[in-house]
Predict the 3D structure of the following.
Amino acid sequence: MVRCVVVIEIRNVWKRYVDKIVLEKVSLNVEKNEFITIVGASGCGKTTFLRMLLGEVQPCEGSIMIDADRLIPEPSADRGVVFQRYSVFPHLTVLENVLLGLELTDSRWLGRTFGRRRAHNVERASEMLERVSLDRAADNYPSELSGGMQQRLALAQTLVKAPRILLLDEPFGALDPGYRSDMHVLLLDLFRELDLTVFMITHDIAEGFSLGSRLLVFDKLRVDPHNPDLYGATITFDLPVGHHRRLDSIMDNMNVKPNQA
Ligand SMILES: Nc1ncnc2c1ncn2[C@@H]1O[C@H](COP(=O)(O)OP(=O)(O)O)[C@@H](O)[C@H]1O
Ligand SMILES: [Mg+2]
């Protein structure tokens, strides 16, 4: 299967709920294989932004293009998402949870497949479980797993469908710090192996600086103290980051390159 280069173009996107402006003038170009981390104050619109990329929320103005096509306004297999709160089904085993995504894609109405197709799906699901080190827990139920294992399951459930774009909304926010660093290693390995383009929201600024190749800061450029809903947040900083960047050059960047778009 040939995968074309993902280029995401976000042009002057606004999101408003009734008379509250959440996001304004958001513009961004993203190349294939970028690992974008997103930070910003609670309630500033980060999840809304991710849900727009997923196709669940529509911009009021502006456009989001993927591979030069306007984003289809519904979730599709080329984009996968993992939220902070576990999205796994408690009444299904670990293997059944991973299988379900594949079966729903293959057989939308029945939710399961049969015969060779089923065997092929079980093989793919088992491989993905092995990749996230959950193969030995395949027959367990989610309640029998630790928080870290449940998030690995949520990742497997999403990645088994081979999305090109992975959207992560504070995926490790509820995990103990020890588990989190293991998840960082796993996520970076999967990012490289599976040829992904990643958007990851985090409330941990250190995670934002170390994990991604590009850090976006969402904030309001203007604030009306009498009407806090009058202005929305936008991307105020867009910084190259990662292990290869030194903190002093990042700080230089912050001084000279605020994104005023
Ligand atoms: N469906 C909705 N209807 C009305 N307001 C909403 C809706 N979804 C989100 N909001 C509001 O949009 C703002 C941004 O929310 P969100 O994107 O979840 O922020 P963040 O993820 O940065 O914490 C919040 O004030 C929230 O209450
Ligand atoms: Mg959020």
The domain at 8-78+163-256 is CATH 3.40.50.300 (Rossmann fold). Residues 17, 22, 40, 42-48 surround adenosine-5'-diphosphate (ligand 1) (CB under 6 Å). Helices lie at 46-54, 94-106, 115-131, 147-159, 177-193, 205-211, 247-256. The chain is about 35% helix and 25% strand.
